[in-house]
Design brief:
Helix content is 14%, strand content 36%. By secondary structure, it is mostly beta strands. A hairpin with a 6-residue loop joins strand 1 and strand 2. The longest helix has 9 residues.
Length: 196
């Protein structure tokens, strides 16, 4: 299992070592000890989710209030997606920066999305299936979104015809979310993760 920190410190791409033979393959998909060693604290597994999307569906950019927020460990078990991590922490040196990681059922990479970050993806294939575990359970009053097509974020989604949910299509831009006080602060996020 190899960990690569993204250009936004705290977020990681995880590449498993796959062991295959004519019968199939085996791999370690998740290791709590290795992840904790790399990110500096354990990932509490509180909820597991499965998401199936048609090609060109764009989901996100979703985030949760800090504390407690919702760290995620995301994998694609069928098809392919372009997964995006966005730094929405006010005061962060990388505020507004985003980075893609291709997740698919060939390389079987995962992405670790830390507390206080925004997360989304674009389905590159039909029936693209994401499996992800979260550090906290879903809290509808503490969950928010930033519009995935916000021109100021300028995320280079790989589709000319993005399909959005009504919720994501109605989400505020990053500037509007900032003005409304919805975004977590960098300092708040750093204090929270240091306490884990």
């Amino acid at each position: 299992m190899k960990f690569r920190e993204l250009s936004i410190p705290g977020a990681f791409e995880i590449t498993p070592q796959q062991h295959g033979d004519p019968r199939g393959l085996f791999m370690e998909w998740y290791r709590h000890d290795r992840l904790a060693e790399v990110v500096g604290h354990p990932l509490r597994l509180a909820q597991g989710n499965l998401s199936v999307s048609a090609k060109d569906v764009v989901r996100g950019i979703h985030f949760a209030d800090v504390p407690p927020s919702q760290a995620k460990y995301v994998s694609c078990v069928r098809g392919a997606v372009l997964d995006v991590v966005v730094d929405i922490r006010v005061g962060s040196p990388t505020f507004g920066r985003w980075e893609f990681v291709r997740l698919d059922d060939v390389d079987r990479r995962s992405v670790y999305v830390p507390e206080g970050f925004g997360h989304g993806f674009c389905a590159l294939t039909d029936d693209a299936t994401l499996h992800y575990v979260c550090s906290e359970t879903y809290n509808p009053t503490g969950e928010h979104a930033v519009h995935p097509l916000d021109p100021d974020l300028a995320i280079a989604w790989p589709t000319d015809a993005p399909q959005l949910s009504a919720r994501d299509d109605a989400a505020p831009t990053l500037a509007e979310a900032l003005a409304a006080g919805l975004l977590p602060s960098y300092e708040e996020c750093m204090k929270y993760t240091a306490s884990l």
